User: Fold these one by one.
Assistant:
Number 1:
Amino acid sequence: MIEMTRFDFALLSLAILLLGISFGLLIAGHDQFMPSLLGSLVLSAWFELRGNKHRRENSNG
């Protein structure tokens, strides 16, 4: 299990919020959904990579 700090939890929450906003903009037919979608994907990818790093460190040691 990944030990989440407050910063990690805030980033994950922000990524989920941005993803919801981007899909809302997409459904509403606005063109501004792409920057919001990209932002949420970058945040969630960073969070996942950080989690993988912690898993590797814990499995080696």
Number 2:
Amino acid sequence: MAALLAGARLVLRQGLRFLPAYSTVYRVLPAPVSVRYLHNSARFLTTALPDNGTVDVESVQSRDSPKTQPDGWSLHITGSKLKKNGRISKQHLLNTLENVCAAGKPSSNQAWFLLQACGSSMPEVPLAERTEIANTIWDRLQGMGVAFNEHHYNTLLKVYLENEHKFSPTEFLANMEANQIQANQSTYELLIAAYCHEGDIEGASKILGFMKSTDLPITEDVFSSLITGHARSGDMESAKNILSVMQGAGLVPRRGAYTALLCAYAEKGDIESINQTLLSCTTTPTDKGFLKVIYSLAKSGHSQLVPSIFDHMKNCTGYIQDVIKMCLALLTQGSGDTAILLAKKFLTVQPSDFDFSSQPGSFFLRHCVHLNLPAETIKNYAHEMASSELHHSPLQFALMCALEYGKKDLALNLIRTLKEEGLPVRPHYCWPLLASSSRKNDVQGKSLLFWWL
């Protein structure tokens, strides 16, 4: 016991020097603090572990703000994030929902805005959870008396498609009719896409026939969906022939149709057909379209073919936020190896900076910690980041995130990894863990921590 107390005194005597990064939430005085000041807990304001739960990726910002903000302010911040980055965190969306609802019954536009953020705008959230959030928001707004129109239903349909949610298009349409909402052209196009997503050409054909009977125009989006539908039904020849059908209907196949065909080949792992299509197509997909092809390859288990797609891409100028968004989505869905390839290929290397959060690889490591990936996996990604100069202190940054999110076990494993790598283990790295163990009277946890030190 005397040895343990001596170790504790050593840790506390060193204070909080040499913090590896300046967190966006916790500001730490770099000067050493004597042990006699321990009674003043404010002197040790640091990333102490919470007792319960974890912190979402961007929830740290919300803790710095008043709990209640005017709904206009909240929507403005959310809109700014979506415009700048094309994505928001789950916690930020839920905070926005609370602020809007606290101000009274949301308007029709506010309801639409909240619903449309529940799809691909949250790449850090699993697909099923995104759909659950959308349904929760829908039910809550409906309970508050918000009058939904066809635009809200179309937005919900689009969210279902982005989240790859399985549902009955027939029941969805019946629900609209029961609520006296008239479906429009966008509704029918989205319903066709829903049928085609499951490879149900018969169901899609019924809606297509109705559109023709009511003289609704058949757009490129419909043909693109039919390409996907035929491919997923196992008929690649018919999928390819859709391009000829488009030309016969007076439509010139554009990037959307070619991207759909490339994604169909990607799901089959047919890189030869992808290359042939790119040679013969009249218009080349954008880099954003190629990102969809990469996603299809990774999702269908053909990630080894991803480097072949890089050869057809430029430098993703103007699409860096889309690259980051795709990396986050791939990580969330378990395709981290593809995500790291994408990050190394297109993210811009920046000079070393003391601000860890501004380095190109910070978002990647933060999300790895948020997903609670194994320490060994994070270690491998950290090495990739360091060798690519996407982050200059990746393991230390990952440890900071683990402490910030209250992931004690991961933090301990990362401390051990730092020691194994021959990197310095600063006393203040361990202070949050020691504080947490002290609150819980976890003698074993403190003993293990001292042993590692």
Number 3:
Amino acid sequence: MDINKENYHNNSQENESTVHQNNKEQNRTISGINDISRSFWDEINNEINSNDVPLWRMWR
């Protein structure tokens, strides 16, 4: 393999690894946001179902 092809091959693998790592980080971030959102709405629904003062009324 000549040097240019070897450099291209190594850079390509490195870029692929970086993209894969970024995708994993993005998926982890999205998962965290979804967990927070889910727990937020669970809390709202618990307040409403228990006939307690809904949180949205306290925010006004």
Number 4:
Amino acid sequence: MEGLEQVFGSSYNPGTTQIGKPKEELGQEDFFRLMVAQLNNQDPTKPLDNAEFLGQLAQFSTVSGIDDMNESFNGLVNNFFTSQAMMAAQLIGREVLSEAGTMLNAFYTPGEAVSGGLIADSDTQDSRVNIYNGTGNLVNTIALGDIKAGSHQFTWNGVLKGGGEAELGNYLIVAEGRVDGSKVSLPMQQYNEVTSVSVDREKMAVLLQLDNGQDIKFSQVNEFK
């Protein structure tokens, strides 16, 4: 019993009944008490190896540090998502510009212009935006000429290449240009109205629901108006 008293102090009483829920895991204080007990009760002829002792300390420090880091990280993540969700909520009812692949599907209403954008990964020559009707016929081309790398916007007011105004309906818009003499397709960007906002914690993303039925991440918004 002498060894146990050294570990737990003179107040140790094997007959004492424990009241309350027992601990399910050791805390920092328990760890150091056990470590001291291990040192006090080690075999003098076989003392604890320094490497083993340092390894135990490092293991505890690592686990303790990870727990603290995870707690801090979770707090930062929650604050980050809350901040992003609040900013994203301010976009409800507004139009945002986001990537739309290499083809942009646009609905034209007479009297209302269609706006969009394109992305050039590098300086591009002879760039242009081609607009096709529902039957696949080219109805107009917007020449942008030589453009620098980056995002560029365009507006189509519904005018046809032969004159007159386009009819109500869906139109396909694509952009192209030349880089080092070779023809390239340019990724498109499209404006859509934000109808609602949601938070997907599993995917760690704030999502915007658009009026075209598409969901995009808040980080995918390039511009808003």
